[in-house]
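ingest -> validate -> predict -> emit
validate: passed (alphabet ok, no gaps, 316 aa)
predict: started
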Amino acid sequence: MKPTRLIPLTAALLIIASTALSGTAVAQSSIPPMPVMPRTTTGTIEHSLRFPSKYIPARDVHVWLPEDYNPSTRYGVLYMHDGQALFDPDCNWNHQAWEVDSVAGAMIARGEVEPFIVVGIDNTDARRFEYMPQKALDYLPANDSLLLELDRSQFVADNYLKFIVTELKPWVDARYSTLTDARHTAIMGSSMGGLISLYALCEYPEVFGAAACLSTHSPMTLVMSPASADAWSLAFRRYLHDRLPEANTHRLYFDIGDQTLDALYPHYQALLDAEIQAAGWTAPYFITERYTNAAHDEQSWRQRLHVPLLMLFGKR
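emit:
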């Protein structure tokens, strides 16, 4: 299968993309440790600082409990990446946040979704290697120039998922009153967090019943050049061809904006959609939404967060 060529890109957008993925000051991978713990507008947050793991470096974990959390009631659980950016704008480098507590709390209060728990997992400086779908690299040509330049041992997404599935989830289920089955367990992230969320659904379909992937870094590559994006995107689609769960047995949400880094994604998101549709996935189990005047940032994700939350936890 011949890789599809990249649509024309402006030099400015290439600079934005390369900077955002390289771990410099504008990327989520460079977020420093939180100077203070996040504050909430609804519900409460409990923190596990420097949560230990035998698979990955320790990091902070933040568990949001909805208003009137009751240990005698069981709750679905949403696992989210980039924990520094989820709750309190003052804890994030750009002073933006998803404000998950505010959005989810309001939806629960209006009766739009079942009450659920959110587990926010902090990222580290290894973010791009923890969130890169590791087994998809096996589908790259052996002579791929970018992969040859990198140390393959840096890619640790499989260990990151082992941490979530075998260490963090059992701790959450033991400490809180949760519905432990896949139907009530979802995973969500943005950009490369979208990649790792989809990867988690493929690697652990018995654990996660749904994945929400916002502004997914569909080119997958760590260097936004046409040749690299074509090859790495194709490798990811070939991985999905072999590893997607059976069609319409899970829920899968994508969305994309049209500003900043998101402006680079439409071509690759369309190829990703086509691969998933070819596997037999249809609405309402598989949805891709497109938003105008939406950038690659937490403010934009906050504005549309209610859409995936309805898909994941909406009252049936």
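Residues 11-313 form a domain with the Rossmann fold fold (CATH 3.40.50.1820).
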